[in-house]
Amino acid sequence: MTRILGLIDGSPYAQSVCDHIAWIAGKTDVTVELLHVIGRRDLASEPVNLSGNVGLGARTALLEELAELDAQKAKVSHKRGRLLLEEAKARLQAAGVQNVETKLCNGDVVETVQEFEANADIIVIGKRGEGADFAKGHLGSNLERVVRSTNKAIVIASRAFKPVNKLLIAYDGGTVAMKTVDQVVRSPILDGLGCKVVMAGAETLENRKKLDDAAVILKAAGYAPDVALVQGSADKVISETVEKEGFDLLAMGAYSHSRLRNLFIGSTTTEMIRSCKVPVVIFR
Fold first, then answer.
1. UspA domain location, by residue (predicted)?
2. Are residues 109 and 192 in the same domain?
3. Are residue 10 and residue 123 in the same domain, yes or no?
4. What is the pTM of this model?
5. Among candidates 41, 180, 32, 10, which has minimal Cα distance to 116?
């Protein structure tokens, strides 16, 4: 039984999260826990500077009014959260997924995920959240934090689900990439998909051997993979391959470098998630 933790918010991606969970459920038996987290900033009013010429009585009355507003805001946030979860549960049950539970929590998303992920095999999250700038293609503010914080496999849902038939594996020959190939061949969810392995880099004997090693593992598991070694930056090579060849799903490892290093050179993982318009499954 595959246990799925699905993160639900009020963004357009929430329906897609449910549809991706339903796709997984069509491949293997699942139990689902839907989680909606009400952030601290969703519960409290903006801080107000009461220093200055506000009298004590007026200040006390204002603080009481702000406290009442916060209580009302919290009540609305909880009611909204319950509605979002019930709608998501109904969507999954309509798709034939029956083992669905819901959880409504207050706090930080990452801390809450860490609390609930122990019993999960897969986390499903939307590529963007309610606060993302959709016009500029910004990722959700919590996405990278969640991916970095967990050792679970993560499915990052695209804005709208479409049937998954072709899998692209982003590969660099490193330890994390080899683990990704190993996870692919072990996954019943990915079994039977058309498959291609793409490596961004120079045409060298070493790089070609790394690609061949990946192909051997996939062939032994029953795949018939294409392989390609393409000159260029990884994010550009992968996103162009996805677009031109019509892949439905990208599989990759994640964040093999430190946060400090990424401050200076950026994160290839983040850029590929941002630029590819298909769902991404990340193995750690």
1. 2-156, 212-284
2. no
3. yes
4. 0.86
5. 32
pLDDT at 54 over 80: no
Tally Cβ neighbours within 10 Å of residue 111.
12
Nearest alpha carbon to residue 272 among 127, 124, 109: 127
Three-state SS for 151? Answer: coil
**82 and 219 part of one domain:** no
The most distant pair of C-alpha atoms in the chain lies apart, rounded to whole Å, by 80
The pLDDT of residue 253 is: 86
Position with higher pLDDT, 245 vs 53: 245
For the chain, the average pLDDT equals: 87
Residue 10 and residue 101 in one domain: yes
Helices (H), the chain: 13-25, 56-94, 109-116, 143-149, 175-186, 205-220, 234-245, 259-265, 268-275
pLDDT in tens, 114-140: 999 999 999 999 998 776 554 445 576
Residue 173: which domain range? 163-278
